[in-house]
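Quick one, tokens below. Sequence please?
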């Protein structure tokens, strides 16, 4: 008999028909003269109930059907006599595919997420992680659909690169060299001429620079792929390997960029609400009781557009009024998550797009605002700042803080080179990037969205390690 997925079986309205389902046992319990098996195949958060008459089955077989075991159940689909489900299966035949021993690590309820991370290969079978992974899939579908419908081209940027987009140097090196016998020059520097690529290469921290090349040829592109940061950050918000969405668009200014950021993220949230109802209701009940209300709130609100200088003023007023912050919030400081969340959750009570950050705390490729005679600058909507600022646009969300970072890119070759020289950056591996400013340069802009941070917000999970199947963090590369 052909297999029917559990999600499809539960939606059937034609009863008293033969059906075959296959999956993993969630629970197996005995009632009065019958036994009940809750079966799930990962297609939905909901289980289908298999009703078993023990007199019609081998007792040894039924004993082997324990939590975690894998079975095939054939029988008649009938309307359920109990509450909580519309239908159930009266079993006529059961095949045991795989037994599951008493040492199965996901047997008990109420296990901590820390415990489940140690068994990441098995945690995917739990209700929580099944829900998270189905939502993760749906968010990927939303992203591709949004950009396709809006005329963007999916652009594949390299994972192996000789350039450092962020200029921070926290990159994983790629090499075929024998690390115990490295060839070095007279100054002790490694010589890479005998390496696979003939030069030092690393895993990418961002596809943005290559994405800009695509935008200056195709008009509007987006990337969606893995990126890597060799930062020794053991926090609930950082991973060494994560996925990024990075659109780049020619002829886009700062106002249009913020419009895109708001429209895009609202589209993704609405997609989740429209397509992940059962999983969201489960997570709202079991993980974060304010989840659905918060998601719906994002759709209702117009995002605040807040110049950094004005944001600092608000934070300093809050501090003067008795608000305790762990980290400083002076003009020129890179805001901490506590500052971002205060602005979003307590002051405005809605998402915020913060603009016009000090040049010193942002990347070299961002477009600088108009300078004033006193060394300051005039940024978004005429907000005057005491120092030079760039046209950055960071989207701040409740529970998360910064969820998305973007900017208008500097299109002037002379201005871009001036910033590179001021920062004393090595341009050896950036010659191709600088060519875009020499041959037909154009205004353009883009943003980067950490996929896992989006999933954190949409699922209500508290640790970024719990929204990716197999997290890569310092001292952890298992599975």
């Amino acid at each position: 008999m052909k297999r029917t997925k559990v999600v499809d079986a539960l939606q059937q309205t034609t009863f008293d028909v033969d059906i075959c389902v296959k999956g993993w046992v969630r629970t197996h319990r005995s009632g009065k003269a019958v036994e009940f098996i809750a079966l799930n195949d990962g297609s939905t958060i909901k289980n289908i109930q298999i009703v078993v008459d023990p007199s019609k089955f081998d007792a040894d077989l039924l004993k082997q059907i324990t939590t975690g075991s894998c079975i095939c159940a054939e029988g008649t689909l009938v309307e359920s006599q109990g509450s909580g489900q519309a239908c159930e299966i009266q079993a006529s035949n059961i095949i045991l595919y795989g037994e599951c021993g008493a040492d199965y690590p996901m047997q008990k309820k109420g296990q901590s997420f820390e415990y489940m991370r140690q068994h990441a290969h098995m945690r995917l079978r739990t209700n929580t992680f099944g829900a998270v992974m189905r939502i993760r899939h749906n968010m990927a579908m939303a992203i591709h659909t949004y950009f396709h419908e809006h005329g963007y081209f999916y652009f594949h940027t390299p994972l192996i690169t000789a350039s450092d987009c962020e200029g921070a140097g926290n990159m994983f090196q790629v090499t075929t060299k024998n690390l115990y016998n490295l060839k070095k020059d007279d100054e002790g520097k490694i010589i890479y001429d005998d390496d696979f690529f003939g030069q030092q290469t690393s895993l990418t921290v961002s596809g943005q620079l290559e994405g800009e090349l695509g935008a200056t040829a195709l008009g509007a592109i987006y990337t969606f792929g893995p990126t890597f940061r060799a930062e020794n950050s053991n926090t609930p918000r950082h991973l060494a390997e994560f996925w990024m969405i990075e659109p780049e668009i020619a002829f886009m200014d700062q106002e249009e960029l913020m419009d895109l950021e708001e429209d895009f993220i609202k589209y993704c949230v609405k997609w989740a609400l429209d397509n992940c109802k059962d999983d969201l209701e489960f997570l709202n009940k079991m993980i974060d009781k304010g989840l659905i209300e918060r998601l719906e709130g994002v759709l209702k609100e117009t995002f605040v557009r807040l110049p950094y200088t004005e944001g600092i003023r608000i934070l300093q007023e809050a501090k003067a009024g008795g608000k305790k912050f762990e980290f400083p919030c002076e003009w020129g400081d890179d805001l901490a998550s506590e500052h971002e969340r205060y602005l979003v959750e307590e002051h405005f009570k809605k998402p915020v797009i913060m603009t016009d950050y000090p040049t010193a705390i942002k990347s070299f490729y961002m477009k600088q605002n108009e300078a004033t005679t006193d060394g300051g600058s005039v940024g978004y909507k005429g907000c005057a700042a005491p120092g030079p600022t760039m046209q950055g646009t960071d989207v701040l969300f409740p529970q998360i803080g910064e969820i998305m970072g973007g900017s208008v890119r500097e299109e002037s070759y002379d201005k871009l080179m001036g910033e590179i020289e001021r920062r004393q950056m090595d341009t050896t591996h950036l010659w191709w990037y600088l060519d875009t400013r020499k041959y037909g340069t154009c205004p353009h802009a883009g943003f980067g969205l950490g996929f896992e941070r989006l999933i954190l917000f949409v699922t209500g999970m508290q640790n970024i390690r719990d929204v990716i199947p197999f997290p890569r963090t310092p001292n952890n590369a298992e599975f």
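The chain has a mean pLDDT of 95. The first strand starts at residue 17 and ends at 30.
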